[in-house]
Design goal:
Order of helices and strands: HHHEHEEHHEEEEHEEEHH
Oligomer: single chain
Strand content: 5-15%
Radius of gyration: 17 Å
Largest sheet: 8 strands, mixed
Helix content: 25-40%
Shape: globular
């Protein structure tokens, strides 16, 4: 499938899911279009995730900064897990916030909010991260094969590629997304080499294990424009290395 066809197909799935969530009054956002849905039931999904043995074994978690995953980040910090969260658009030379539960000056729920984290957490470069036990992604849509779609900016895929190249994502690293049941689609999701699949989908009522999700082995430079690379210092550094 040509790149434009893939983009159009993904956008059609996004629109389908955004419309379904809106019709069901399943989100907190006034308008969910263009966003990672802040779905109702996010706390229950976080609690379900926290009940899994893989979560309980994890000590280092990389999580997206979206509101839907705030309960996951807060829970991780409350349970003494180290949490890394990306700087918006990976726009700084040190593109990850380090939330160390032992060093927090505010309660975990506050520290886990992206705005507060930006104010209180030190930033670290890719190579300074500890190996990741668990990666939590936000999604607009996901299917039972583990194919997922974000809102289309591609930053989660770039983060994952950078972390993989740095040896921080291992075969044991579990990749999870928390979503509303309406975000789990039966519609085929076209994927490309740089798209990150998930091992587990967690909704408020269900845990779905995905068979053999796709994982990129590193940065797919052919999928990046010169402009995109120039905006992300960590990519510029990798390219120059």
């Amino acid at each position: 499938m040509a790149a434009n066809s893939v983009d159009r197909a993904k956008q059609a799935v996004r629109t389908q899911v955004w419309d379904a969530l809106t019709a069901a009054d399943a989100v907190h956002d006034p308008s969910v279009h263009g966003r990672i849905p802040h779905f109702k039931g996010a706390e229950q999904a976080a609690a379900r995730l926290a009940g899994l043995p893989a979560w309980q074994r994890a000590s280092v978690v990389k999580a997206v900064p979206d509101k839907a995953q705030l309960p996951v980040r807060a829970r991780a910090l409350e349970e003494g897990k180290t949490v890394y969260m990306a700087v918006p658009k990976l726009a700084t030379p040190k593109p990850f916030y380090l939330l160390d539960p032992a060093a927090l000056t505010v309660p975990p729920t506050e520290a886990a909010a992206s705005r507060t984290a930006a104010a209180i957490a030190p930033t670290v470069e890719v190579d300074a991260l500890r190996p990741l036990d668990l990666i939590v992604l936000g999604s607009v849509a996901v299917n039972r094969d583990g194919a997922r779609i974000g809102k289309g900016a591609g930053y989660s895929d770039i983060e994952f590629a950078l972390l993989t190249e740095a040896g921080l994502v291992t075969p044991e690293t579990l990749v999870v997304t928390t979503v509303h049941a309406l975000q789990v689609t039966d519609t085929p999701i076209p994927t490309t080499e740089h798209d990150v699949g998930v091992d587990l989908i967690v909704t408020p009522d269900q845990t779905i294990t995905c068979p053999n999700p796709h994982r990129p082995s590193g940065v797919d430079w052919s999928a990046l424009t010169a402009e995109k690379i120039a905006q992300i210092p960590a990519l510029v550094a990798r390219q120059g290395a």
